[in-house]
Amino acid sequence: MLESDFHRGRRLRMSPGVRTLVRENEIRPADLVMPYFVAETDDPGFRKPIGSMPGQFQLSLDQLEQQVAGAVANGLNSVLLFGIPKVKDELGSQAYADEGIVQEAVRRLKDRFPELVVITDVCLCEYTSHGHCGIVQKGGEILNDPTLELLAKSALSHVRAGADMVAPSDMMDGRVLAIREALDDGGFVSAPIMSYAVKYASAFYGPFREAAESTPTFGDRKTHQMDPANSREALREAAADLDEGADILMVKPGLPYLDVIRQLRDSFEAPIAAYNVSGEYSMVKAAAQNGWVDEERMVMEIMTSFKRAGTDIIITYHAEDVLRWLNR
Length: 328
Prior knowledge:
ALAD; Aldolase_TIM; 17% strand; zinc ion binding; 10-stranded mixed sheet; heme biosynthesis; 38% helix; 328 residues; Delta-aminolevulinic acid dehydratase; 12 strands; TIM Barrel; alpha/beta
């Protein structure tokens, strides 16, 4: 058999320069969104390690600003904020309070870093005394339609504070439309919505519950988050959110649902985001701390898998590390 009779793929792998020349996907700083947990506290130096998420913290406003400053210096372009209020109640009133912790964090960051894209999570679970994403009636049922008004109020308060984008994560039916109408009526027709359009009832959220102090006091979230066994349902949810006014579609979690990301990419022209969630992050960190894996190589391979599957935006707790690696 002559050499010309078979494919020689190795020709394009024989040197670093050639491999770089033909690489199909690259991770850029602009692709990354770093989530932060900001806590309402009287201690300006508050920096509480999150035990199940090595390297992540609950931060006071001062500490958040300091942390973000270092990341921005390394090229961070976008953040996603989660709030932890001092006081919680049944209606999650601090979620839509004008002086709430997220609203204050938005003002602080936009004043210090006007070019930073500040995205806010819109949900009630971090703010309710019961830990659920909506209003709960007697008997434990989560009420969909009455919750929409509170979610819309939350989103509007975030944008009034200066948020560049809101990201509803509650998975209540109709919440994108309710938020879009509230923003438009409030004069914020240009404020985009990044919808958690495809959010699964996943075991990978475990460490987040500690980080955001949002563990439900009863029941679970399976009545509004998606069944991990379903993928066609994801297309229906995404299409519905686009019809209601979503500008960006998110899949959460990311790594176990690369097939779903690809289905959305093939079906819709809208930008696609993947949330590389707490459980995915913690597994890598735990394995790296035990010396079982090369953390940098593994993380970069995971980031590349999101790009290869079709994502435009990667929300990840690895963002600060990735930025350092890219700069090096």
